[in-house]
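Q&A FORM
Asked by: J.P.
Topic: structure of AAA domain-containing protein

PROVIDED:
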Amino acid sequence: MANNEHIQLLAYWRSSLADASRVEIPVEKSPHQYKAVVDFVKGSVSAEQAAVLIDKAEEQLNDIKGRKSKDDPEWEYLDETNILIAPFRVSPDPEYTRYSGEPDVSYPFWIRAAVNREGSLKTHDDTFPYIPRPHLEPQVNEAVNFVFSDVDTVDAAFAMPFMNDGKWNSYRKYLEEVFRKITGVSIWQYSAERHTVEFSYTMVAYEPLTSAADGIIKLYDYLIREKEVPAVLERLADKADAGQRPLLAADNFEQASVRHLGQMAYAYPLSVSQRKSLYHLQTLDNGEILAVNGPPGTGKTTLLQSVVANEVVQSALKGEAPAVILACSTNNQAVTNIIDSFSGITQKPGLLYERWLPGIKGFGLYLPAQGKKVAQSIPHLKRIAGRLAGAHIDKENVSYLATAELQYVDNFERCMAQKGLSVQEITLLLRSKLKEKEKQLEEGIQLWQQYKRISALIEKLAPEADISLFQYNTLNEAQLAQIESAVRALEQQIVDYLDKESVWIKLFGFLRFVKEKRAFRLSYLFRGCPLNYDAVDFYNIGSFHHFFNERLKLIQQIRKYAQAWNQWKKACHIQANPPADDEGFKAAERNRQSFFYDELEMGLKYDLFYLAIHYWEGRWILATQEVIAEDRIHRNGTADAAKRWQRFAMLSPCFVSTFFMAPKFFTYSKLIKGSGSKSVWDTPPLTAFIDLLIVDEAGQVSPEVGAATFALARKAVVVGDTLQIEPVWNVPAKVDHANLFRSRVISDINDQYAIGELLTKGFLSSSGSIMKLAQKATPYQMYQDMERGMMLTEHRRCFDEIITYCNKLAYHGLLEPKKGPAKDVLFAPMQFHAVSGISEARGTSKANQEEAVAIASWVLTHQQQIISYYQEIENAAANREKRVAKTLRLADVIGIITPFTGQKYELSKTLRKSGVDLSGLTIGTVHALQGAERPVILFSATYGSNDIKKGYFFDRGVNMLNVAVSRAKDAFVLFGNKEILTKSDTTPSGQLYLYIKWLTEKPMTIGQEASSFPPHP
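REPLIED BY: S.T.
REPLY: Here is the structure written out as C-alpha cells.
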C-alpha cells in the first residue's frame, strides 16, 4: 500500500498535466461543425447542428468502450456534451507564409460550454477559455510563428475573479472581459498582423484525454487507482531529501573500475568527472536515483553510452535476462539527439566490432508516436491499432531467423577461427570469454593493489631511501637493481672478511677487546651500505645473516610485485599506472596522457562490450526460435510482454522515447471479465519493469510530465542542467496552487510556507523540473557550491574565451575548459556589434528591423569566407578519417538566436531579401539549438533605445544567455543596443557586454586561467 502523501502528489501532477495539455485542438480529428450557427448573446446554437455533434460524441464514447451498435444493451446515450467554440480562425497571409513557412489555420481562443440536443448552451465548470500553449510567447515550437498573447498576460487574466452563477449572460460578459484583458480589444475587433481573421464559429466536441499526454494521464490514473507507487517513484516523490553518502575516494576507484565493464566507443575514454559519475551510479540499489548535473559541452552523450554499455556487459555475465534500459526526454529533438548518439558511433575495424545479424545497426531503438515520420536508417517501433509494428517485430519470423542463424555462425567462425559450434554453444563460449576478461580485470586490480604495497616494503627496506625509488606509484627498477647489487656486494665482503679472520680472533672472540676490534672492522665495511643498518648488532654474527636475508627477501618481494603487475599490463596492452589522487588525474589530462583507466576503456572494456553484444545476438536467435515454436509471438500477458521487450533489448540495448510516448509502449494485456459484452481488454502498465531509466535534458522536463514514467523503472540516472533551458510551464501559478489544495498536498491554499518548500525542491508544475526532484532524491553531492548530484566539469565544445563567460555566470568557475584559447582563427571568439535602432511590436512579440539589417549585412560579408574556412577543416578531417567529406552549407556553420518570434520572422525576411540561402539555417529562440552547436552563433538582442526603462527577457535568469553563448564553438557575435547592455553591470547581459569589452581590450593568452578574468561586480 502506497503512502497517502505520495498518492496525493500523483493526483496533483495528474491534474496539472490535464491542465497543461493545452495543445492545438485537432478539429478534423474530433466531432466538429464548421460555420456553426451560434447566438453568443442568447447562449444557443442550431438544434440540428447540436444533435449531429452530440450523436458523433455519443458514437465516439461508445466506440472507445467497445460498443459498436445501439443494439448493445450497454450503449450509453448522451443528451448533452461538453464542447469548445471558436468565434474566429486565423490564417497567415500568403507573403507571410512564404517567409515563415506556416500555412496552417489557427484557433487561438476557445470558449468552453456544454450543449444539449435542443441547442441550449450552459456554462462549463471550467470557465476560463481554452488557449493553446503554442500561440503564447515565449514560444518553444519553432514551427509555429503566430502569437496570440503571452503566458504572463494569460495568467494575469486567469487571476480575474469570476463567480460562476450558471447564467449564460454573466459567463458571456466574463469571456469578453478576459479576451479584452488578453488582447486589448473586444473579440469582434480582433486582428493579427500579417494574418487574416475570419469571424466564423467552429464547434468541437473534444475529450481532453485525446491529447499527447493521454498515456501519462492513464498511467497516473492506474497508480492512483491501484495505490501503487514503485520504489524509484516513491524516492522521487519524497518531500524529504535523500540521506547523503560520502563520495568515493580515489582509492575506491580501483574496485569501482572492476564494476565498470563495458565501453561503447573506443576513440575517446571517459573524462574524470564522467568516470566518477558512472562509478557512483554503480553504487545504487534498486529504488535509488542518481542526478548528474551536465553543463553545456561536458559530454553527457559519452556518459550515457558508457552507462548503457556497462549494463549490457553486466547482464551478459549474469547470463539471465538482458538489462532493459529506457532513455527518455520531454521532446522529439532531445530524443532524436539520443537516438543519433547510439546510431553513429565510429568503431574499430574488425569483425568483432561489427553486428553479426543482418539488418541490425546501432544500439538504440526509437519508440515514436504513430504519426511521427522517422528516417528509415533509424530502427524504430510504433504502436498501431494496439499492436507493435516495425524494426524487430519484422524479424520475428522463420525466414529471417534462418538467414540470421547462418550469418551469425559464419561471422563467429571467421572472427574466432573456431568451427562446428551451434548458436547455443557459441553463446556459452562467448560468455566464458566474458568471464575470462572480467577475471583478468579483477586480477589486474588485485595486482595493482599488491603493487602499491611496494611503498610500505620500501619503507621497511630503507626508511631513508631516495623518494625517486617509488615516485608517483612507479618503481624505479634500475635504482632497485643498484641497491640489490650493493647489498649483495656488501654481503660478500662480510663473508670474505669472516672467512679470512685469523684463527686467533675466532678462538678468542669471546674476549672484550677482540669483540671490539671485530665490530669496528665490520662497521667500517658497512659504511658504503645504501640501506639503513642501525638494527645490525656488530657484536653478533647472526645479526648480519638476518639483515641480509631480510633485505634481499624484501627486494625480491618488491621485484615480484612489480614483475607481476608489469606482466599483466603487457598482456592487457596497458602502459600507465592509475593516478593516485585527483591531482594525478588532472595532471594526466593536462599533459594529454592516457592512463590506466583510459587504456582499459579503449581496450579491454571496449572488447567486453562487443563480446556481450554478440552474446545477446545469439540469445535473441534462441529466444525467438523458442517463442515461435511455442506460438507465443503475439501473446501479450504480463510474462509475454516482458519477454518481448527483453528480446528487443538483446538486439538494441537502449530504448529511446519521449515521456509522452513511453507509457503507451510498456504495457501488457489483461482481460477484465464480465458478463456478455462487459468483458473488456485493459492495458495496465509494466510497473518496476525497466531495469534502468535514463532521463536526458532533465532540466527541461516539467515534473508532471516526467514523474509517472519513473513508475516503470527500478532505478534511474537523471542527467540535466537547471541553468540551461527550463521546462515549458503550461500551468499558471494560481491554477497550480489550486491543484495542490484540491489534491490535498497542502491543507490551506494560502499556506505560502508549504508552497515555498515544494517550489524550492522542484515539485511544482508551474516552476519545477524533474532535474530538481532528482537532485533532492540523489544521495551524493559533488560540490557544496552547486546543487546535489554528480557534476560533469570538463568542457570541450567552446574556446576558453567563450565558455569562461558561462563558467563565471552560472557554474562558480567549476568548469574545466579543455579546448584551449582561440588561436589562428577566423574571428575573435567574442564580439559585440552595436546597433542603435528601436524595437517594434509584432503583435505581442518584438522585432528590430535595423538589427535584422545589421545581421544580414554581417552574414553577406562573411558567409563565403566562413564556408570556405570550415570546408577546409572538414576536408582535412575527412582525409584523416578516410571518409567522403561533407559539402558544407551556411546552415552547417552559423546559427542565429533571438529571444523573440517577431524578430525571428524579421531576420528570415531580411536575410532572404538579401539573397542569403536560408536552407536549413537555424533562426529562432534558444530552443531551436537545443542540445546542438555551431561554429559561429549570432545573437540578436532585439531591444532598442525605446526599451531603456524596461526589464529584459534574457535577464530573468542566467539560463537564456548561458545556453545562447555555449552553443558557439568558435565565435559568439552579439548584436544589440549598447545602452540596453550597459544599463546594469550585474545582469547576465550586462556581464556579457563587460566581458566582451574586457576581452577586446585585453586578449586572452594561451594558458591563461579563467580565474584571471574580472569577477562579477
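FOLLOW-UP: The longest strand covers residues 968-976.
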